[in-house]
UniProtKB/TrEMBL annotation:
<dbReference type="InterPro" id="IPR008780">
    <property type="entry name" value="Plasmodium_Vir"/>
</dbReference>
<keyword id="KW-0812">Transmembrane</keyword>
<keyword id="KW-0472">Membrane</keyword>
<keyword id="KW-1133">Transmembrane helix</keyword>
<feature type="transmembrane region" description="Helical">
    <location>
        <begin position="276"/>
        <end position="295"/>
    </location>
</feature>
<feature type="compositionally biased region" description="Polar residues">
    <location>
        <begin position="231"/>
        <end position="242"/>
    </location>
</feature>
<feature type="region of interest" description="Disordered">
    <location>
        <begin position="221"/>
        <end position="246"/>
    </location>
</feature>
<protein>
    <submittedName>
        <fullName>PIR protein</fullName>
    </submittedName>
</protein>
<dbReference type="Pfam" id="PF05795">
    <property type="entry name" value="Plasmodium_Vir"/>
</dbReference>
């Protein structure tokens, strides 16, 4: 089993993913000096500068976060799981980091954490394997009620990805429970997490379960989920600042929060040029045909000719009247300037 369960499209937006995505968007753009120094100190690791900008942005906005899910009032734990996940996913020599103690020490040296004194970020003393068991259990508890309500509304029909997610996390839950209920509690650390969430957030007597739908229904559900995700993102963007709107991304991320990013961009349907041509030409042809039928087979032809001839005659007389009037005026004008000169 993978240390970190990657979540694919499960048919419902999961609070844990939304929370981590929210943290991924926060960046500090006034931290170049300290982040450059940190990147130099940790030059063997990749993407340290980007993580540093993100981390300092989270620290600066710590008191402003509003999370969703079962732990919406516990910002400290959400941030801690996010930080450790990001640290474990820094890479060096094409491999993930397994020992992050050096990175944590350099972060403490370069980043001022006084703003979040009430939250001790770096007190997880776990191996990578233990950490991801804890994180999977914590995220599952965060998403538990959302999944439960979703299954109830769908008559406990789900897609395969959601069923796999439930089954894998329930297996982790049972294993941790068995380890923590023995007298020899080898991993006391994640037993604390287990004790914290077991009664309040996970109903062991009624484990989540669902039946996988057929392929056709699953395709329809994925389309419906895509529409609801875009609507949810539109509402979310409405509550963000302008700067956040420009950088916002949604939700096709993995549970790690930064593996696969789906940019929020609606697919606009293109209109074929043939449709446009047909829409213009056909009405014109219809008008021409109607006019031809009226002209050829109805009294409209004689009426039109009579009307045009009458109009031409009227115009002729108007022109004649205009010319005669000008001639008369010219005659009278010339007459007024005549003088008699005797010989």
């Amino acid at each position: 089993m993978s240390l970190n369960i990657i979540i694919y499209d499960v048919g419902v937006p999961l609070p844990s993913t939304l929370n981590y995505n929210n943290l991924n968007k926060k960046k500090s753009y006034d931290s170049d000096r300290k982040c450059n120094k940190l990147a130099d100190d940790l030059s063997e690791y990749k993407n340290v500068f980007d993580f540093c900008e993100n981390f300092t942005g989270v620290i600066e906005n710590f008191d402003k976060f509003s999370f969703v899910g079962q732990f919406d009032d516990d910002s400290c734990k959400v941030v801690k799981f996010w930080v450790y996940d990001r640290l474990f996913n820094l890479r060096t020599n094409n491999t993930n980091v397994s020992d992050i103690n050096k990175i944590i020490n350099k972060l403490n040296e370069n980043i001022n954490l006084d703003k979040i004194q009430k939250c001790t970020i770096f007190d997880f003393k776990y191996s990578k394997e233990v950490f991801y068991k804890m994180k999977s259990l914590y995220d599952y508890a965060t998403n538990y009620k959302t999944i439960k309500d979703h299954l109830y509304g769908k008559n406990y029909i789900c897609n395969k990805n959601l069923k796999d997610y439930i089954d894998k996390n329930y297996e982790i839950y049972i294993n941790i429970k068995n380890n923590c209920n023995t007298s020899d509690r080898i991993h006391e650390e994640y037993c604390k997490v287990y004790e914290y969430i077991k009664e309040v957030f996970i109903n062991e007597a009624l484990p989540l379960s669902c039946k996988v739908r057929n392929i056709e229904s699953e395709a329809d559900e994925q389309e419906e989920f895509g529409e609801s995700s875009r609507e949810g993102m539109t509402q979310t963007l409405g509550s963000l600042s302008q700067g956040d709107k420009e950088r916002s991304v949604f939700s096709g991320k993995s549970e790690r929060g930064h593996d696969s990013v789906l940019t929020f961009e609606d697919h606009k349907p293109s209109v074929p040029i043939t449709n446009i041509i047909v829409g213009v030409i056909f009405p014109l042809l219809g008008i021409f045909c109607i006019f031809f039928i009226f002209y050829k087979f109805t009294p409209f032809k004689s009426w039109l000719r009579t009307h045009l001839l009458k109009k031409k005659i009227i115009q002729y007389y108007e022109v004649e009247e205009y010319i005669q009037k000008n001639l008369n005026e010219s005659y009278h004008t010339n007459g007024q300037h005549m003088r008699y000169h005797p010989l």
